[in-house]
UniProtKB/TrEMBL annotation, chain A:
InterPro entries: AP1_sigma (IPR044733), AP_complex_ssu (IPR016635), AP_mu_sigma_su (IPR022775), Clathrin_sm-chain_CS (IPR000804), Longin-like_dom_sf (IPR011012). Adaptor protein complex 1 (AP-1) is a heterotetramer composed of two large adaptins (gamma-type subunit AP1G1 and beta-type subunit AP1B1), a medium adaptin (mu-type subunit AP1M1 or AP1M2) and a small adaptin (sigma-type subunit AP1S1 or AP1S2 or AP1S3). It comes from the Eukaryota. GO terms for biological process: intracellular protein transport. It is found in: Cytoplasmic vesicle membrane; Golgi apparatus; Membrane, Clathrin-coated pit. GO terms for molecular function: clathrin adaptor activity. This is AP complex subunit sigma. Residues 1-140 form the AP complex mu/sigma subunit domain. GO terms for cellular component: AP-1 adaptor complex; clathrin-coated pit. It comes from Poecilia latipinna (sailfin molly). Keywords: Coated pit, Cytoplasmic vesicle, Golgi apparatus, Membrane, Protein transport, Transport. Its main location: membrane. The keyword Membrane applies.
UniProtKB/TrEMBL annotation, chain B:
It comes from Poecilia latipinna. This is AP-2 complex subunit alpha. Keywords: Cell membrane, Coated pit, Endocytosis, Membrane, Protein transport, Transport. GO terms for cellular component: AP-2 adaptor complex. GO terms for molecular function: clathrin adaptor activity. SMART domains: Alpha_adaptinC2. Its main location: membrane. Gene3D superfamilies: 2.60.40.1230, Leucine-rich Repeat Variant, TATA-Binding Protein. It comes from the Eukaryota.
């Protein structure tokens, strides 16, 4: 089972956090701090796995963003890496060439996509098509709901 | 850079996010956030009802602020309102807010549960999924109570949509993990197992996580899943890469499901049914074969997915541990990975091989890779990979390769990362002992260990070498010679001096024939180190000296002179002084016969489990050394040494432990049977140390007495806390004796090293620390220490507790006042009004009375005051004082030398918020001290 997923920038700014077990805010902040320092201190081309307390930490960097997954001991590290990759692909498909800014400005979407893919720390659906379809259809629902608020905007 | 907001745009939100990003400083950001919070608050409070869109937008902004790391204490109601909206987009944001800001506010949970209930019964699959997600996210007990019976029904109902089934399975899994008692097995369980046959791969993937967890807890009830899992796996493994369409990941068919199936099978023993087993072995062989095929893609995703299945299959093969052929194939496959260019694969191969090394079928096959693993230890750039290599070397070690492996580990130690040194030292020590056929090799190894990594050699390690040398007479001469040579080095580690002192004191005679190591040369060599050593080591050396007098009468005059000099016989350290005095007397009074009897060679140590092994187990958790244990039982039984740990109190250990104000620990064995607590004259033996630290030391060394006054009227609680350390105490007192339990909690995830504590008491108190504190405190761990206190006579100064440890390399030094106050030794005394006043009058000399008038600092509530007075330890006397508002108490303080009767009167003035406190005691210093202490309590 996965315990948490964190997305943070090279500067250590947290961009997304998802927790799959109930822990206190204080504890969360502590973990976030430890993960960012630990992962950011790693040299390039070292392995993507770390042992941390009773968890395996699996991380990978995509452009300016680090994806960091904390999984329980019996999880398979290589597949954990591919969970991260699949999530990146899903974001990419939705935003089209996803970048850090997409996730900052549309954090709620990033959560919705994640929720279609993972649930309760386990994989819910691995098919890219099915997840994308689910997200698209919920976007459609939003359009139907109240088209008067629907707008595509550009911000500088 | 422009960012496109897809779906529904919330312009206000995007503008806000841009504003935050444009903030130049943290202050500006906080200012902007506070402005926004004020705005949202006024909108939520405003008279005008907000429309759904605005509500959604503001809730979303709150969420964003929260995710930036700020606290959010409102907006929950608005979020709950959004849940009951009929508009999907509003509902979705509402659920997101609830999921992220989980709150155990039960009032709110009830409202949320209502909304969830409506959505679950809505038959709208998207609404149902949102509700199920929310339950899985919050996972609280209240939710489990409300929905644990409903969700299995949704999961197995014939008309449930696939996507809802997937959510229901994982939601149920979460509830089962948090509140297993509320998820009742029933008719649904058998139907859940059959989801393994479901046509929809997504449903199988989600359901198998649930089934695996349920099988682990109730294997019998779910055992039908084995054959279903095997046939599903077989279908996937034999399918072409295109058969499974979107469930094929980079040309690998259903990697997640395959791994989950292999994991599920690891909950059970090998299938009994021959056909099922045959089919499974076929699958495993196919997986191993595929690893040899050329890759279908150069992408790392392809190889990761493929190898993930391979590693999972190898885990299953190791779990079964019954197919020699497969085990050896697995080992060869991992051997290939050991040299793979992908660091990840090398890491995993090392890790996986560690478990293979423990199987008797593959142990030999693993051993063939020794050179590669040694090479990895030397050349890997990544410390986590090197750590795995060291683990594997440890696991593959046996009698045939022990010398090579130990030598490699020793040479690696010279450059090893600090973070893993201590563990490496323990491993080397264990292997050296375990596979020592020739004990001179063992002695060499441990002495090398001390030389190379002396700081990381814990007490257990050097105790152990002494135990073994004592117990094996074939190695004693060699040990004496080697340690003598090692001590020649100009700078040698203190641990080396300890071992040297002990061994030469016992067996120096075995090398004394050689003029190069004549008795006087030996003595001079040891004594040249004396002044550089800490008190416990010096104590040990003094004992070695007296042993020398017995072994070599010709050294008597020289040694007596050393003992007689002021720096020994008048040493400010009680322990050293006592040893010098006693040894000097012993050597001059006792006859040679008596001396020979008293100073006889130490008897062999009784055999016990190696203390080092116990330590490594504790360090790495139970799984880490199972390999060694297994070897113990399988192959190496009978090979353990004839020595064992001597239990926690042998005199040798006490003498060496810096954290113990060492009792009369010595080499003599005279008191070896006496428990530490009975040994006299230990009080304040480290007084000097503490004074030197507590005085001019840097900020962290200053005495911290914040917690002290809070414990005057209570005995238990948290004495001290900072970011690193929490110290809790529990204490009990009887008569003039007290016992205090100290709990040291490491709040970090990083280990504290060299953790030592010392207690120094004012002369009127005596204290003993019972037991030895481990020098290592693991991250998150708590250790306990017991302190016995005896009150000799009345006192004012509190004992000081000094704590030192290394945290990430930096030395932490902390001195605290222990809350031992004179009132702790009170015995309550009940008496009638008449008696009270009679005694009150008897104590009428002016110096016997102490009085203070002071302002109330705390609540003047009667019950609070009463509780404090009772906590003080005196008897609270009713109907004594003519004024019922006043409090009157009586008690006797018990000290070893005398009893001190005390009477107290406390007169509150609620109007003025003042008190008048009067104490009369048979001893004036007690009145004064009690008055000082109590004036700060009310």
């Amino acid at each position: 089972m996965m315990r948490f997923l964190l997305l943070f920038s090279r500067q250590g700014r947290l961009r997304l956090q998802k927790w799959y077990t109930a822990i206190s805010e204080r504890e969360k902040k502590k973990i976030i701090r430890e993960m960012t320092t630990m992962v950011l201190a790693r040299q390039p081309r070292t392995c993507n796995f770390l042992q941390w307390k009773d968890l395996k930490i699996v991380y990978k960097r995509y452009a300016s963003l680090y994806f960091c997954l904390g999984v329980e001991h019996e999880e398979n590290e290589l597949l954990a890496l591919e969970i991260i990759h699949r999530y990146v692909e899903l974001l990419d498909k939705y935003f089209g060439n996803v970048c850090e800014l997409d996730i900052i400005f549309n954090f709620e979407k990033a959560y919705f996509i994640l929720d279609e893919f993972l649930m309760g720390g386990e994989i819910q659906e691995t098919s890219k098509q099915i997840v994308n379809r689910a997200i698209e259809s919920s976007d459609m629902l939003q359009e139907d709901d109240h088209s008067e608020w629907y707008e595509v905007e550009l911000f500088g | 850079m422009p960012a496109v907001s897809k779906g529904d745009g919330m312009r206000g939100l995007a503008v806000f996010i841009s504003d935050i990003r444009n903030c130049k400083s943290k202050e500006a950001e906080i200012k902007r956030i506070n402005k926004e919070l004020a705005n949202i608050r006024s909108k939520f409070k405003g008279d005008k009802a907000l429309d759904g869109y605005s509500k959604k937008k503001y809730v979303c902004k709150l969420l964003f602020i929260f995710l930036l790391g700020h606290d959010i204490d409102f907006g929950h109601m608005e979020a709950v309102n959004l849940l009951s909206s009929n508009k999907y987009t509003e509902k979705q944001i509402g659920y997101l807010f609830i999921s992220v800001l989980v709150n155990s506010n039960s009032e709110l949970i009830r409202l949320i549960n209502n909304a969830i209930k409506n959505d679950l019964s809505s038959r709208n699959p998207t609404f149902m999924c949102l509700a199920l997600h929310c339950i899985a996210n919050v996972g609280s007990r209240e939710m489990a109570e409300a929905f644990a019976s409903e969700i299995p029904r949704i999961l197995v109902a014939g008309d449930t949509m696939d996507s809802v089934k997937q959510s229901a399975a994982l939601c149920l899994l979460r509830l089962y993990k948090t509140s297993p008692d509320l998820v009742l097995m029933g008719e649904w369980t058998s139907r859940v197992v059959h989801l393994l046959n479901d046509q929809h791969m997504g449903v199988v993937t989600a359901a198998i996580s649930l089934i695996t967890c349920l099988s682990q807890k109730n294997p019998d009830e779910f055992k039908t899943c084995v054959s279903l899992a095997v046939s599903r796996l077989s279908r996937i493994v034999s399918s072409a890469s295109t058969d499974l369409q979107d469930y094929t990941y980079y040309f690998v068919p259903a990697p997640w499901l395959s791994c989950k199936l292999l994991r599920l099978l690891q909950c059970y023993p090998p299938p009994e049914d021959g056909a099922v087993k045959g089919r499974l072995v076929e699958c495993l062989e196919t997986i191993l074969n595929k690893a040899q095929e050329p890759p279908k893609s150069k992408k790392v995703q392809h190889s990761n997915a493929k190898n993930a299945i391979l590693f999972e299959a190898i885990s299953l093969i190791i779990h079964y541990d019954s197919e020699p052929n497969l085990l050896v194939r697995a080992c060869n496959q991992l051997g290939q990975f050991l040299q793979h260019r992908e660091t990840n694969l090398r890491y995993l191969a090392l890790e996986s091989m560690c478990t293979l090394a423990s199987s008797e079928f593959s142990h030999e096959a693993v051993k063939t890779h020794i050179e590669t693993v040694i090479n990895a230890l030397k050349t890997e750039r990544d410390v986590s990979v090197r750590q795995r290599a060291a683990d594997l070397l440890y696991a593959m070690c046996d009698r045939s390769n022990a010398k090579q492996i130990v030598a490699e580990m020793l040479s690696y130690l010279e450059t090893a990362d600090y973070s893993i040194r201590e563990e490496m030292v323990l491993k080397v020590a264990i292997l050296a002992e375990k596979y020592a056929v020739d004990y001179s090799w063992y002695v060499d190894t441990i002495l090398n260990l001390i030389r190379i990594a002396g700081d990381y050699v814990s007490e257990e390690v050097w105790y152990r070498v002494i135990q073994i040398v004592i117990n094996r007479d074939d190695v004693q001469g060699y040990a004496a010679k080697t340690v003598f040579e090692a001590l020649q080095a100009p700078a040698c580690h203190e641990n080396m001096v300890k071992v040297g002192g002990y061994i030469l004191g016992e067996f120096g005679n075995l090398i004394a024939g050689d003029p190069r190591s004549s008795p006087l040369v030996q003595f001079n060599l040891l004594h040249s180190k004396f002044h550089l050593c800490s008190v416990p080591t010096r104590a040990l050396l003094l004992s070695a000296y007296i042993k020398f007098i017995n072994l070599f009468p010709e050294t008597k005059a020289t040694i007596q002179e050393v003992l007689r000099c002021d720096s020994q016989i008048r040493n400010s350290d009680v322990e050293l002084q006592q040893r010098a005095v006693e040894y000097l007397k012993l050597s001059s009074i006792a006859s040679t016969d008596v001396l020979a009897t008293v100073l006889e060679e130490m008897p062999p140590f009784p055999e016990r489990e190696s203390s080092i092994l116990a330590k490594l187990k504790k360090k790495k958790g139970p799984g880490a050394v199972s390999v060694t244990e297994l070897e113990d039982s399988k192959r190496e039984s009978g090979e353990l040494n004839g020595a064992g740990e001597r239990g926690p109190d042998p005199s040798v250990m006490a003498a060496s432990n810096a954290s113990t104000p060492s009792p009369s620990a010595d080499l003599l064995g005279i008191r070896s049977a006496a428990p530490v607590s009975n040994a006299p004259a230990s009080a304040g033996s480290l007084l000097v140390d503490v004074f030197s630290e507590a005085g001019p030391a840097a900020s962290s060394g200053a005495v911290n007495d914040d917690g002290f006054l809070r414990f005057v009227c209570k005995n238990n609680g948290v004495l001290f806390e900072n970011q690193l350390l929490q110290i809790g105490i529990k204490s009990e007192y009887r008569q003039n004796l007290g016992r205090m339990y100290l709990f040291y909690g490491n709040k970090t995830s990083v280990q504290f090293a060299s953790f030592t504590t010392t207690v120094s008491c004012p002369g009127e108190l005596q204290s003993h620390i019972l037991g030895i504190v481990e020098p290592l405190v693991e991250g998150g761990a708590q250790i306990q220490q017991v302190l016995n206190i005896e009150c000799l006579t009345d006192f004012s100064d509190a004992p000081l507790l000094n704590i030192k440890f290394r945290y990430g390399g930096a030395l932490q030094n902390l001195t605290l006042k222990l809350p031992v106050t004179i009132n702790k030794f009170f015995q309550p005394t009940e008496m009638a009004s008449q008696d009270f006043f009679q005694r009150w009058k008897q104590l009428s000399q002016p110096q016997q009375e102490a009085q203070k008038i002071f302002k109330a600092n705390h609540s003047m509530d009667t019950e609070v005051i009463k509780a404090k007075l009772l906590g003080l330890g005196m008897a609270l006397l009713d109907n004594v004082d003519p004024n019922p508002e006043n409090y009157v108490c009586a008690g006797v303080i018990q000290t070893k030398s005398q009893q001190v009767g005390c009477l107290l009167r406390l007169e509150p003035n609620a109007q003025a918020q003042m008190y008048r406190l009067t104490l009369r005691c048979s001893k004036d210093s007690v009145s004064k001290r009690l008055c000082e202490l109590l004036a700060q309590q009310f």
